[in-house]
Each structure stands twice: as C-alpha cells, then as structure tokens.
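Hey, I was hoping to borrow your eyes for a little while. No rush at all, and the record is pasted right below.
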Amino acid sequence: MRIEMGDFLLRDWRSEDAPGLARYADNYKIWANLRDAFPRPYRLEDARAFITRVHAEQPVTVFAIADKKS
C-alpha cells in the first residue's frame, strides 16, 4: 500500500527499513513514551523481528511513514 500525504507517504514496511527503524527507535525519549514491551536498547535484530512480524499479519494494519524519496 502507498498513500501520499504532502511530502510524506504511508507505505508497507520493507526489510531495508530495519537499520533506520533501529536507529530512531533506540532513543530514550521514544522508549519512555511507549509500552513496557518495547525493548531498550532497540537493536537491529529487534527491528528485523518487528518487520517480519508485520509482514506476517493479515490484514496489514501497521505502516511505515516515509518521505517521498523512499
């Protein structure tokens, strides 16, 4: 799926998103505002596992927010 919204879009997660997800999710301010199940530190393995889990779900209800260049 791909929905464009101004300079950004909602799209399906891709395996190549894992390094960026790990980088942004491994932020104390992000972690402090999420549920207890969110790992800290958030590692590349966590990001890969999340993306794998999202790909297995039907219907798809979790999407990446990306700039239009992605």
Notes: The mean pLDDT is 91. Helices lie at 18-25, 28-31, 44-56.
